[in-house]
Structure formats: structure tokens, C-alpha cells
Structures
1.
Amino acid sequence: MAVHDITTPAAGSSTSLRRGRRHRGERVIEAFLVVAALVSIATTVGIIVALLQPTLRFFQEVSLVEFFTSTSWTPTFADKHYGVLPLVVATILTTLIAIAVAIPLGVGAAIYLAEYASDRTRRAVKPVLEILAGIPTVVYGFFALFALNPILQKYWPGNEKPGFFNVMVAGIVMGIMIVPTIASLSEDAMSAVPRSLREGAYALASSKMQVATRVVFPAAISGIIASFVLGISRALGETMIVTIAAGLSSDKVIWNPIEAAATMTAYIANVASGDIPVDSIDYTTVFAVGSLLFVMTFALNVLSIRLVRKFREVYE
């Protein structure tokens, strides 16, 4: 009885000490997470503040009507026009080509890795696929210009061939660049689908393809949509590929993908690295275009959140 009285408080003290250390560790982690969230918010606010003043100065000189309706963008020419439509159309056209390439390849790779590949194959293939995401985009740009574009010019049907700079080759290579993003996130979403759903489908004599496309894919649709939006956002903000491969023509709206055209990011990169005076109206065009790109990306993310919440499935 005496031994029990001596050892019990010691054991209780040791347990309390471990609990105290664990609680302190949790509070430290919680504080770090709060700081990380605040840094993200502060960064977003800083971007808005940095863009706001020059953008307002630009619109004091240029009307919103001209900016959004004029079909010529030539702020660095002698005959100046400030219609952003050529940049917007080129950006959207390049992004559409990119997602037309990336979504089928990315989803196909995700379905194979999640449903068909063995564990050994998955462990080998997925890291190799994700290597594409680590390649510098400037390398993709030169690959598009000097490796893929000659093939495109040689085999393009019809008499009109793609030019040395064109939107098509930039969009194709940009799609290849974002395949790992879509494939990896979609595969993670599909792998998170409970095994019981697959087993129930197999019990009803469903084939592997039916299980993958009619059970797993709908169940993981929220994560797959999130991967699409992330890929599209990266395509919208891509700079080096379009700067190198798509060209810098912005004097008119381009609808033909085999012609050269400047995207919003390409224009920003080109003008920001030039010798335009900082206090000039031409320099503030960079901030006006950047603000519009920020708004487009923000609207896309808001839409993605709504879609993810709408299609989200919760399994217990």
C-alpha cells in the first residue's frame, strides 16, 4: 500500500507533463498556421494595393469604354490605342487550347493511375509524370518554338501554315505543362473515394471502365473540378511560354490560332522589361492589364469554390 502511494503521484505527474508538452506543441502549430493564413491574406492585400493606384491613374487618362471595347492595343506605337480586347482574346484562346490538351491527358492519366495501375507502377509513373511540373517554363517555350513548331508547320493541313510565332503551339505546350497538375490532383481525389463504392459496383457485374467512369469519377468530381480550375489559373498566368512562342502582336483581335498574338502576361513581361518611363501613361498600362488579369483569376477561383461546394460528396 505504501509503494502504491509513492508511485501513483509520480505516474500522474509524468502523464500531466506529457499532456502539457503536447498542448504547448499544438498551440505552437496553431499559431504557425494562423501566421501562414495572415501572410496569405496580407500578400493578397499587398497585390491589390500595388495595382490599385497606377490602375486608377491609367483610367484617369483612358475611358473604361475604350479599354473594354476598342479592338486595337498599341500603347507603345505612335498611333496609340488602348483597347484590351486583343490581349484578352489571345489569352482566352491560348488557355482554351491548353485545357483542350491538358484535360483529356490529365484525366486519362489519373484514371489509369487510380484504377488500372498496380501499386508498383503507380509509385514509378507518378513521380515521372510530376517531373514535367518542375521543368522551367522558359524551357517549354523554346521547346515549343524550335521543336514542336517545325512539326506543326510541316504537317498542318491546308495552304496556310502556322507562322514562326503562333498561338497554337504555345497553347499545346502550355497544355502539356499543366497535365501533371490535373493528373496528380485528380488521381488523389479518385484514390480518396471509398473502396466500398468500387466493391458495390463490381458486385453488380460492372466492368473496370464502368466503375472508373460511372462510380469513381462522379464521386471524385469536386476534386477533379478543383484540379481543372488550378490548371486553368496556371494557364492564364503563364508568361514565358507565350512570350517566347506566341509572339507580341496586339494591334488587332486574332481569332486564328496559327497567327501570332500577344497575351496579357506576354505584354506585361515585354513592357515591364523595356525602357518606358515609369511615370508615363504607357507604363501604367502594365498595371491596368495586371488588374484585369487579377480580377479574371479571382472570378475563376470564386466560381471554382461554388462548383466544388455544389458537387462535393462527403463519405463517412
Note: The two ends are 48 Å apart (CA to CA).
2.
Amino acid sequence: MTTGPAPILVVDDDPKIVRLVRTYLEREGFRVVEAADGRSALAAIALEAPSLVVLDLMLPEIDGLAVIRAVRRTDPTPILVLSARGTTADRIAGLTEGADDYLPKPFSPAELVLRVRRILERTGRAGSETGSGPPSAPLRLGDLVVDPARHEVTVAGRPVALTAVEFRLLTAVLAAGGRVLTRDQLLDAVYGHGEAEVLDRTIDVHVRRLRQKLGDDPNRPRYVATVRGVGYRAAPTATER
């Protein structure tokens, strides 16, 4: 494996797209590695530990959504979907599977570079020069512990594997200290202001999956409570009820 900063992995079976994306990313100082199908993409992720994956959905061998699902079982590596499948349903599918952002084709290379930079900043993979970022001290609610610095979540000492989107969502809810966050506020916290064209219901899908992984009953929540018609907040503790 090449030493130095972690590369960006570009996965597409169209050589012209790969060449275009590589050219613009390398102009900005990024190192780029390539894969032309889903199976090769998974192998490259394991070998290269990339800082970010730019992923097409319509791939040979294993399609892009299956790649996202496979990665998200154990790996928080940020994923930017770059696909000709650009309907609202396609975007929601990609984002709810665990993609961090979704850029339909045809696309602006300059916008692609901007989105890559913002995802790296938001996920803490762009270096210390990017600013304050998320809180670094562990956040606790009952037996739930979220450690932003280590990107770890435990429930009663049991590790819980979350996608990068789910992790940012949970961190935002706990960091709000009991304040209610609207769906728009959570969209900004998870995807960045104005970056992803997503709908409010996308947040509801993420919350549902997050609760399933945490073992949280929505009718008697211990961690994430619904505020009907508004959004979500950290569930009240026993002393607050």
C-alpha cells in the first residue's frame, strides 16, 4: 500500500468519468485510486482504507447499493454517490443505505470537489485545519455512550456499529442537551447546509434504523424521543419524567 494521506477511491465502470473525476481531484491535491466494479471496490476499500469513496450505483459484479450495505456493516468511510440514477427515490435509497451525499449525473466537477471537501471536513478526515467540528468529549445518556473522537458507540458496554450518517445524527441529538431539533436542523447537522437534496422523511428513516441498532423502543424511548410535528430530542432521563 502506498504511504501518505489516505486516497480517495473512485468507483465507476465508465473510464471517461473516472478520468474526469481523477483529473479534478488531483488538481486539488488529492491522491486517487480507482475501481471499475463493485467487487474491486470492496477489495480496494479493505486494502487502501480510503478517506472517501466516490461511488457509481450501476456497477458490474456488485451494484453500488450492495457495496454501501457491505461497507456499512463495519466501516464508517464516507461515501459520495455519483450516479445517473437521480430521481428522488434513488437519492433517498442511496442516503438511507448509508451514503453521505448524492450527486446526480451529469454533474459539475467543481461541485464534486466542493462536496468532497465538505464531507471530509464534516467527518473529520480533512486535517486539523478545518476548524472546530463535532464535540470531542464522550456524550452519555443512561447506558448509551457516544465517543466522537473515537467514532465509537456503546450500549451497556456493547459496541454498536452505526453508519457515518447515523453517528452524526445521534451525536447531534445528544449534543443538543435535551433541546428539540427540527428535521431541517438535523438535515443540516447530518448532510451540511444545502448539500444534499433530501426530504424530511429521510431523517425519519435514519432515526428508525438508529433505534433498531440501539434497541430503542419508539413507544418508550430511552435514547431518541420523537416530538410530534417538530422533530427529535434526547429522551428524558428518569429524573426528568
Note: The two ends are 54 Å apart (CA to CA).
3.
Amino acid sequence: MLTQERYQSILSIINEKNAVTVSQLAEMLEISESTVRRDLTALDELGKLKKVFGGATSITKREGVYEDNVSMREKLMSEEKTEIARYSAKLINNTDFVFIDAGTTTSRLIDFIDNDKATYVTNGIVHARKLVQKGLNAYLVGGKVKSATEATVGAEAIANLKNFNFSKAFLGANGIDINAGFTTPEIEEAKLKEAAVNTSYMTFILADRTKFRRVFSVTFSQLKKCCIITDSLPDSSYSKETVIKEVMK
């Protein structure tokens, strides 16, 4: 196996397991422990992982303010998002007053909603149209329109949300990290998500496994305030922080 192939294999294993020992890597890759140690040292120096005594751990990705547009994100983890959305729709009861955040996974949630007795509020322009087309009782939060996510944000939108008392909220997140919590790249959108969390009795974060161990610019909630619905959990330590449902385990 070539050096670069070993590096890629090691990173793939560590990112999946979060932490791994030298002996485990040696057995999985069928190489010597001395070779593993040299590779771990090199990858640590490149900033790709964190070398620790007896092995290595993954590192949290700091993403900054970059965010893909809606059409790009819609294509990623498509099957996983569908299963997350399908499960989430079953959580809506007749008497619920529901907030649905703008986002690609929350948009799919609407595809599976069949409860026409609940009331829905959203800041997603596409979401509002889909809710109305299904004949559901829906309200669109007014405010500044953010083109990248096709969402309303800003002071007016936040003021509107603060007047509501939601029984359930379904939100998206760009990053999930044990220390940083739930994060997103943009300040105005983060403030609106924060308001939704604070005005909801129960908040569910709909996020596929690629969102874990990623940190974006702004935290909108700590993990303990929200439940997470995901396809599969890449790191069991998150289960110690909040309630998590894996829909494809």
C-alpha cells in the first residue's frame, strides 16, 4: 500500500471511530505498528489528526463562515435525510404548534407530514409553499430574505418568533460539536434558531452524520437543550450529552 493510500485509510478509520489505537490500525490495515506510528506522526504534523499515547483521535473541523447553497446541499446525503425526515414527521401530534426551520432536511420533513390538525410556522419560503400546497394550516415568519437558504431572518423575524410558544420545533444545523454545541455560519440565522429553541417546549435537530465534529462560526444552542435525530451516530460520546435517535442504525 502506498503512503498516501495508507494516510487516507487511516484518516477514514479515525473519522469514523473518533479514536483508534496503533494496534487496531496495524491489524485493520495489515501493516506493522512502527509504520502506523510513523504515519500518525506525519498526519499529526499535517494537522489531520491528533496523536495521543498509544493511538490517535479525530480533530474537530473548523468551518468558518462558508456555506453551500440550497441546491448543492440538497444533493448531499439524500437517502439519510429522507429517513430522518420520515421519522420526524411521526412526532407531530394533532394539538401541536410546530416551528419548522428553513433547510434541506426540514423541507423533506414536510413531504411526510400528514397531520392536518396541527398548526405550522416556518421561516422557509419554499417550506411555506409546500405546507400550503398540502392544505395544512401554515404561517410564514416575515423578515429579511437570505438567498443562500431561502429563509427569512433578522430582527423582525426574531420579534415574531418571540410572540409564539411552540410545542415542537424542527431545526437544521450545519455543525454539531460536544463543546461548541449546534452551530451555523451566519449570525442572523443563528439568532433566529436560538429564538426558536427558546420558545419551544421540545426542539429536534435534524442532522445527518456528516454534521458531527464540525464547528461553524456561531453557536445557537448547547446540545442539552435539543434532541438530535440522525441517520447514525459517528461518536457514542454524544449520547451522554442529550437524547439522540438513530433512524438507520
Note: Residues 149 and 243 are 27 Å apart (CA to CA).
